[in-house]
Amino acid sequence: MVFKRYVEVGRVVLVNYGPDAGKLATIIDIVDQNKCLIDGPANLTGVNRQVISYGRIVLTDLTVKVCRNARQKTLSAAWAEADIQAKWESSSWAKKLVAKQKRATLSDFDRFKVMVAKKQRSAIIAKKMKELK
Amino acid sequence: MTKKIKLASTPTVTTVDGKYYPAEDAPAKSTSKTVRNPTKIRASITPGTILILLAGRFRGKRVICLKALESGLLLVSGPYQVNGVPLRRVSPSYVIATSTKIDVSSVDVSAFDDKYFARSEESVKGELFEGDAPKPAIVSEKRKEDQKAVDAALMKVVGGVDLLEAYLKAKFSLTKNDKPHKMVF
């Protein structure tokens, strides 16, 4: 099995655990086998420059073209050029995260409405299936 | 010489303040400093909140809270034509307050209080001798009329919200994968 996502300078990661959980960041330097230096950039994602363990992050498909230890200013410019925010938000991964968060905040009435909508949808599909047979 | 014998006489009790003390210490009357406040009902329950009843005959039903009564109980109505819950008192401890609220200011519930629901003497006596199956509840005409009046006003509000009538008709239940401590009501 070949790895497709590498830990490298410029790799965009999603922080999974800790106070910045759920936010994007970029790897700008590698400390050792267990941790790396990441930066938001802070003005774009809210993640400050910090050393973080690999266990707390997950690699995404996106990369940014930056040199090792790039300044926040350079990093922000590279992010804007690569349009990372838009690319991330259009990915199905990001959409699933948003849907998950929305589901967690649904009220009892909202859950009822979802149930009704699901039933209507499956009724339409079943009707169509019957036609096709 | 005859001695004059003084007969002992029962001492007359004269209450002269400060000079008379009772034989046993009378307990001093304690002044009660406790304040009786109206029962505090949690902030999530307001008139117009949709409640989920958790216990009792109508457990699982979704009902509309109309007001909080003096005794601390909640006055609730199905409405009756939607889910069969009449004007009823319900304990707030056995209820989930959902975040769904409707405007019930147009519904007049000033006539309903704890006295309205007090059980008549005849019905209380009859309960002690339960040999047969429980008799069906005898609903007075007054109750039916009051129910109709309240429900007419309620249905106008309920009809204004999409799917609310169907929501009140449906029963609440937990299914697999439901985590009540994580669910937002």
Short descriptors:
heterodimer; A: 133 residues; alpha+beta; five-stranded antiparallel beta sheet; 5 helices; 5 strands; 45% helix; 21% strand; elongated; B: 185 residues; 4 helices; 20% helix
SSE diagram, text form:
The complex is a heterodimer of chains A (133) and B (185).
Chain A: E1 11-15, E2 24-30, E3 35-39, H1 42-45, E4 50-53, E5 57-63, H2 72-82, H3 84-90, H4 92-104, H5 108-132
Antiparallel strand pairs in A: 1-2, 1-5, 2-3, 3-4
Chain B: E1 49-53, E2 62-68, E3 74-77, H1 80-83, E4 88-90, E5 95-101, H2 121-127, H3 141-160, H4 164-169
Antiparallel strand pairs in B: 1-2, 1-5, 2-3, 3-4
Mean pLDDT of chain B: 85
| Biggest sheet layout of chain A | 5 strands, antiparallel
Strand order of the largest sheet of chain A: 4-3-2-1-5
Strand portion of chain A = 15-25%
Low-confidence stretches of chain A: none
Structural class of chain A: alpha+beta
Structural commentary:
The complex is a heterodimer of chains A (133) and B (185). Chain A is 45% helix and 21% strand. Chain A contains five helices and five strands; from the N terminus they run βββαββαααα. Chain B is of the alpha+beta class and 185 residues long. Chain B is elongated. The chains are: A alpha+beta (133), B alpha+beta (185). Chains A and B meet through helix 5 of A and strand 5 and helix 4 of B.
Summarize the structure.
The complex is a heterodimer of chains A (133) and B (185). Chain A has 5 helices and 5 strands; from the N terminus they run E-E-E-H-E-E-H-H-H-H. Chain A is α+β, with helices and mostly antiparallel strands and 133 residues long.
